[in-house]
Amino acid sequence: MNLVDIKAKLDERRPGHSLPQALYNDAAMFDFDMAAIYGRSWLMAGFTCELPETGSYSALKVGRWPILLVRDKTGTIRAFHNSCRHRGAMLCKEGTGRSPRLVCPYHRWTYNLDGSLLSAARMPEDFDNAEHGLREVRIEVVSGVIYICLADNPPPFEAFRREMEALLAPHDLAHAKVAHVETLTEYANWKLVLENGRECYHCQASHPELARTFPVSASAYFEFGEADHAAQYEARMQELGLPLGPVGEDWWQAIRFPLNPGMQSMSMDGQPLVAKPMVAAGNGDVGSLRWALEPHSFAHAVGDHLFFFSAMPIGPRETLVTAKWLVHQDAVEGVDYDRAALVHLWNTTNLQDKELAENNQQGVDSPGYTPAPIRPRPKFWWCALSTGTAPRHGNTWMKSWAKKPRRRRT
Amino acid sequence: MNLVDIKAKLDERRPGHSLPQALYNDAAMFDFDMAAIYGRSWLMAGFTCELPETGSYSALKVGRWPILLVRDKTGTIRAFHNSCRHRGAMLCKEGTGRSPRLVCPYHRWTYNLDGSLLSAARMPEDFDNAEHGLREVRIEVVSGVIYICLADNPPPFEAFRREMEALLAPHDLAHAKVAHVETLTEYANWKLVLENGRECYHCQASHPELARTFPVSASAYFEFGEADHAAQYEARMQELGLPLGPVGEDWWQAIRFPLNPGMQSMSMDGQPLVAKPMVAAGNGDVGSLRWALEPHSFAHAVGDHLFFFSAMPIGPRETLVTAKWLVHQDAVEGVDYDRAALVHLWNTTNLQDKELAENNQQGVDSPGYTPAPIRPRPKFWWCALSTGTAPRHGNTWMKSWAKKPRRRRT
Amino acid sequence: MNLVDIKAKLDERRPGHSLPQALYNDAAMFDFDMAAIYGRSWLMAGFTCELPETGSYSALKVGRWPILLVRDKTGTIRAFHNSCRHRGAMLCKEGTGRSPRLVCPYHRWTYNLDGSLLSAARMPEDFDNAEHGLREVRIEVVSGVIYICLADNPPPFEAFRREMEALLAPHDLAHAKVAHVETLTEYANWKLVLENGRECYHCQASHPELARTFPVSASAYFEFGEADHAAQYEARMQELGLPLGPVGEDWWQAIRFPLNPGMQSMSMDGQPLVAKPMVAAGNGDVGSLRWALEPHSFAHAVGDHLFFFSAMPIGPRETLVTAKWLVHQDAVEGVDYDRAALVHLWNTTNLQDKELAENNQQGVDSPGYTPAPIRPRPKFWWCALSTGTAPRHGNTWMKSWAKKPRRRRT
Predict the structure, then answer these.
(1) For residue range A304-321, what is the model confidence (pLDDT) as tens digits?
(2) Which residue of A has its CA nearest to B62?
(3) Average of pLDDT values for A240-249?
């Protein structure tokens, strides 16, 4: 497929329908996705607590693209393409670490923490270090969460920052730490992985563990029907001064919502998994703050921990999922929390979703596959991606939703 | 390669020669093969005994295309694209099973056994179940064998049905069962795998085990020279009322032929591998009924068992072979037959052929490879594919052969 | 990318800079590399001692292309495409062996050692054996080393032969044997593997073991500054009658140079690894003769052994490295040398380089990668490839170097 073919396939999309087959399995379409979507969107890249000190760094990949986050001498976290300006070698392997300077393992070109080139041995006299600093990547930090965008002109960030600062403030990520990181390869197109992550139509049947605490059957906008615990929750949060949302734009959504009656955390029994809470307010019994970025991530912040999910495309039928669990920095493993218990629910849920997404991919590859109507009004407001509306091309559901004032924070 | 290049490569084919290199290793050519050949041909998909009851199903793949066979309430076996009409998920994983209805594992859309949509939870009121039944695939059943074709206008099936019913009748597949299934990945183009399976020029040297019972050195049309056991066999089959063939059209061939003198079954010693025969006539000593479908399969039905071979393309240099062994349904494993002994000969032969095909692929990838003349008149009549004539484009050898009346069943 | 795109990418190259990204990771570019570079260059294919007798053969691959070297009845070593003229099957699997004739494992077509077809069973009477001999590949043998070129019009070979005969004569490869062969897959483009192998800017930091004996810090043209051991070495070699070079053309370079002071061999301690030397002159203390062919190989011949390195492309991001160690044919393993000790230094170095090349590949895949200036005048004269000048398109550094008469052998 060339760009004309790709355009034709994009034009084939019908509102309220799943996508044309090629958008789920074609190699040229995949390359287009990377350039047009992953190359232009804000992405959740990690947490400031992963870079606690001057010289702390975190290296990750967006697909095949290596990115480096570094805390410089002023305490500012910067993002660079993780590629030496000499021969292009990666400066740091994936993962976290700390170094007073960034030294390329290949020929020892050495960069300051602000990305400027400090020294390049044996280069000629007319070589200008100032022209060979690391290439910067756009970065924003909001309440302890790091966002990057590989485009020169990223989408507007102001509304997101304003809303998320208010929503995340009680979760005190400045005093968090990463308790566990897990990666999982799903042999499915990233859109199938994300569509799965965005809708909960499948949750009741496929995620019995998640359904214990998560309101998988709540109606749209978290109207809980006759049950009054939603109203009680809303009143309690108001009393604690915790904003609820929902808020959002086409590339992000956020909401604070109540868990099932009697449940304080997303765990097997609804009880906290960490003795030391992250949220002081309400003794940590504050439901879950969920926020999601198109195209790749979501997070659930409950009172005692935070769960983060990110999907990075590897190929047309392969996606790498990274999951992280954060707890209070003073929580001690083996004392305040058991790591296996902490990760059990989401690891279980992610493996169930891997099975569903891979099965979905195999079925979508069928010549009998045709885009079909999906539920036109998503049950949950975060089902936007499921509508078949491509990320970053507007979201009609979100727009109609925006007219409904209830629960909207302003 | 685009379609113009592909056309040019097809035009390069010379009668009586092996194929141009790109037909054995090019990715675009492979996609064309799938659409033009596997997408339009009748394929052997299994046996009715694999779906014994209402609700029995068998899920298989044609390349990446998932297909579902189901026995409905009327006892009819139907074929569907194994892809839910909602999001496209596979309804059933590969293999066999039984279910009163077909329930998608993703969102529980539920289909009747005839493919009609019974229920789809939470869909809007204007959603019409009748428009969302499973997409059917053309299917034909002949004497216990299931054939499918993914095209809307499949090749004519009547002659095949008529001839195969007569030939297969004595084998009583209505009372058979599958004793063993084996899969094997060959790192070679499907055409190399099939060319290998179609000719026996290599058998004498490469398949000593097979050569014990199989007449690898017989002349064309199974004329066995001075030996009179072929004439004796023909007379005996006539006495038993068993038709011999050979019969065929461009996409299939069938023949009943004698094994080597003194041999009753295709086994290491020529003796039956199963105490309870499938064929009553002649106490099961009836030679072998071999039939083959272009592009992918062949079967040998001897008195005590049936061996089935199917090759499905995975990529330009990768093919999945599935082998099945059938025995009488009353034959008890460990009593009437030993499973390891049953499968030994063909597993041995298939592994030898895997070695040959993979070696062939590596050599065909050579810049020194050029299409070269192969034996212009195949020794065995089933060598058709070896002539370099593409499947489904006519078979000149078959046509000339058709003029020879000897042994032809009419 | 089509040829127009490829041309545009080639035109983007800037002298003294690393290459445009696509030249390191694009699939179409890779195919072009194979056809335009590997398909047209002289390649080091092995050593005559690997084919000691009539009927000895050695099978290797250039990428996916199988090549067969055979010593015929006259003692001449011939090169063929390792692909039977019948169906294209490989005649011999990779590795070495001996056979009185070349018999295809598929249908037993049998070739004489000179490549002519001796017999093809069951072919029709008008089949002409003379038209179906093996396709020959251009071959040259110089002082025990075998070179092949897959093109019909290979680059001029005369100067290379003349210079290498003189340089290699003292190493007596006619009485050598292969002591060990090692293969290594590097997940990096072949250009990154070779650029790494061509420059020693990285050696001081990354190869501490190699740096013990190899002059990683010597200035260009092996001018060793104030140290006089280079002058002493030059005088000593002159006394022994051993030419030094450097010599070369655009596709090859060769030089005999001194190891670090006090070092006689490339080993962990600088002492010989083999008790029986290959070079009689100077008791084997003759520095190292290094020669290299673009695009894929280099060798170091020291007094007691010879190390050979060859990189063959497998895919855009995958390269197969083959390493061989030669010793005197009379050296007995376990008596005159310890195999593990013999291979330790270069296996260690190769694994270090694998790490560097794979890291480089990941970084080059970054959207932040841009071709950047590398050291404009390579420290070592064999750094040619590092200049970003494509192999076979001239080498400006070599041309300027040729004007410097010092150490040039004429």
Answers:
(1) 999 999 999 999 999 999
(2) A366
(3) 95
Chain A positions touching B127 (Cβ under 8 A) are 373
Which segments within B213-273 are labelled E, that is strand? 247-249, 252-257
- The number of C-beta contacts closer than 8 angstroms across A and C is 85
pLDDT in tens, B31-49: 999 999 999 999 999 999 9
**What are the DSSP calls for C237-292, one per residue?**
HHHHT-----EEETTEEEEEE--STT--SSSSSSS-SBSS-S--GGGG---EEEEE
* Mutation site for C-interface testing, chosen from B352, B355, B362 by largest number of C Cβ within 10 Å: B362
Q: Given a cut of 90, is residue C238 above it in pLDDT?
A: yes
Burial class (CB in 10 A: 0-12, 13-18, 19+), B55: middle
- According to CATH, the topology of domain A156-386 is Naphthalene 1,2-dioxygenase Alpha Subunit; Chain A, domain 1 (3.90.380)
Other beta carbons less than 10 A from residue A106's beta carbon: 24
Which chain B residues touch A201 with a CB distance below 8 Å?
A: 107, 121-122
Question: Is A256's pLDDT higher than 60?
Answer: yes
ipTM above 0.90, yes or no: no
Fold type of domain C43-142: Rieske Iron-sulfur Protein (2.102.10)
Kindly report, residue by residue over B234-244, the tens digit of the pLDDT: 999 999 999 99
Q: How far apart are CA C281 and CA C276, in angstroms?
A: 13
Residue C143 has pLDDT above 80, yes or no: yes
Sign of CA dihedral B337, B340, B341, B343: positive
d(CA A104, CA A92): 8
Residue B402: both structure tokens together: 């058709």
CA distance C141 to chain B (A): 21
Answer yes or no: do B80 and A356 touch at CB < 8 A.
Answer: no
Give the nearest partner residue to C81 out of B202, B368, B377, using CB atoms: B368
The ranges assigned to domains in chain C are 43-142, 156-386
Q: What's the rounded Cα separation, in Å, for the pair B369 and B376?
A: 19
Residue B104, pLDDT above cutoff 50: yes
Which of C202, C369, C377 is opposite residue A83, by nearest beta carbon? C369
Find all residues with CB under 8 Å of B196, minimum gap 6, and list them.
B202, B353, B356, B357, B360
pTM for the complete prediction?
0.89
